[in-house]
């Protein structure tokens, strides 16, 4: 049953046109960011950046929103069309529904993050022509793997919240607030270090090679890349857990 559920979700995932447009949009946005930043570095920008630093910024400020759209619509499009009824009839164990969707999202978004990161670093490096900071193979690997892990876990978090709210607009608003405005407010008025333990900033730190300065915050992260991944994992587990619990209670 689980294999059949995953196979069905895989088919549904790729049959939605918005999935393709969102993924393509993320690639184009990263390419745009890398082109503009690479040319700026070559022209002598006041703020020197490395190729992996440029990609980090592109992921947080641009591409992650395409990932949000992919993960959110994977659930909410079924509620909009009413096909969720068929899904729940075919897979009576509710936990298997969320698990099957997560099993599709995680490898797709992880691979997507790695590919987008490598593309962005390659484009930026070519256009920088030796200007700015250098990127070693190990630094590039940490950034690419960190981006893949962040996108995969961000997708699972969105998946869970989508099952809770069952609304694309509501899910996007909640997740965007959780990614940027809320951690900034918490950091400013409650606890200065709180920002590093919210999904976006933990994901950003997961892409920063050990010992490097976070290119967006201008400081060395308080923990290493693996710790950033674990923070994102905790948020993803909380999101999918809440979504599964409410799906089981409301649609049992």
UniProtKB/TrEMBL annotation:
<dbReference type="Pfam" id="PF12730">
    <property type="entry name" value="ABC2_membrane_4"/>
</dbReference>
<feature type="transmembrane region" description="Helical">
    <location>
        <begin position="59"/>
        <end position="81"/>
    </location>
</feature>
<keyword id="KW-0812">Transmembrane</keyword>
<feature type="transmembrane region" description="Helical">
    <location>
        <begin position="172"/>
        <end position="191"/>
    </location>
</feature>
<feature type="transmembrane region" description="Helical">
    <location>
        <begin position="147"/>
        <end position="165"/>
    </location>
</feature>
<feature type="transmembrane region" description="Helical">
    <location>
        <begin position="20"/>
        <end position="39"/>
    </location>
</feature>
<feature type="transmembrane region" description="Helical">
    <location>
        <begin position="102"/>
        <end position="127"/>
    </location>
</feature>
<keyword id="KW-0472">Membrane</keyword>
<protein>
    <submittedName>
        <fullName>ABC transporter permease subunit</fullName>
    </submittedName>
</protein>
<feature type="transmembrane region" description="Helical">
    <location>
        <begin position="226"/>
        <end position="247"/>
    </location>
</feature>
<keyword id="KW-1133">Transmembrane helix</keyword>
